[in-house]
User: Fold this.
Amino acid sequence: MSSRIPPAADLWRRENNWVFDEEVAFQNRFNDPNSGLPIYQLTNEPIVSSNIYPEAPISTPDGKHFIFSRRMALSSHYTYWIADTETHWIRQVTDEENATAPIFNPKDGCFYYLDNANLKRIFLEDFSRELLFTIDSNLFPTHGALIPTGGLRSFDKTGRFAVLTAKTEKNNMVTALIDLEDRTVKTAYSDPEALNPHPQISQNVHSLLLIQVNNGIQYDKEGNLLTLVGEKGASLVACEIDGSNPVLLQVGFSLLERIQGHQCWVGKENKVITTTHRRKTTDAEWIQDQIVMISVEENIPKVISEGPGFTHIHTDPEGRFWISDCNKSGDIYIGSIETGKYKLVCHSKSSFGSAQETHPHPFFIGNKNIIGWNSDCSGIPQIYMTKIPDGFFNAIE
Assistant:
């Protein structure tokens, strides 16, 4: 039987760069010098704050709330917080030792997350939580066989099925499918080289599962990771959500073209958008400048934009626009999928270092008019956002 759990915190925190004093308020120096857009810093404590999965459904459809993670320096323990894009306030929503990132369920408008094998949800009206059920399966930590690593990653359109990444007792990464109605969990996709699968369910009426396979992984005899991907890079596989009928997408995975390793579904279509590396010959330097889209049905890649070193990628819910960052400058761009045109949003000033939190990982919040990203321009990774006026899109449509 389900039971309500009090909120993880009773109060909102005000860490943003909008000051209450009227004579200060929001200073002009926080506007981006190129676009003029106001850059709101939502977090300020000496804590690593970030969201490194642009493709994850971490925001409400109206764009009012979105989830991000926080951890102390040198710690692997995360807490999860919610931001209000209207007030710019933040609030802690999980306090469990083993909570994983909450994602939005379109069925009931709640955020769902795992605490070990306990499936819980967060109610937005008061941020109380509810234990829905404990997953009883030999694929879960109740039996010590499977440990959630990234938690829930994506729901299908109906909100009944969700995917998560996990490791078996033999340290193999698998993608599991949870059925919220039957309260069951099964392995949906298993490949010893799907170490960083970025599993995502399309929001199409015909739901498909997208998996990244890091081909050519190498370990030393102690089990330390030596090579994350081989010479051809990673590959992308689309399949039914139960893992059947896998299709190898014909993008990257060659000596002359690699996918960057960041991709997502395009709106509600069964099309995938990704960024790529390419070169003319095997002894030439790699060029990273293209955004590619591919339909699962046709399986023919199409270059939709060329320009800077596009890296992390996300699309708006309607599948009309993409947002990406440049790993050479840290700049953030928004572009049109139809026209291929793009425009600079802001200079994130992210260092793009080894730590994932120092990469912008820009993402749309709700619709296309609010975006968020990470930046360590202060010396510590923090969460930033801005609002995109409709006029911004006129130049690229």
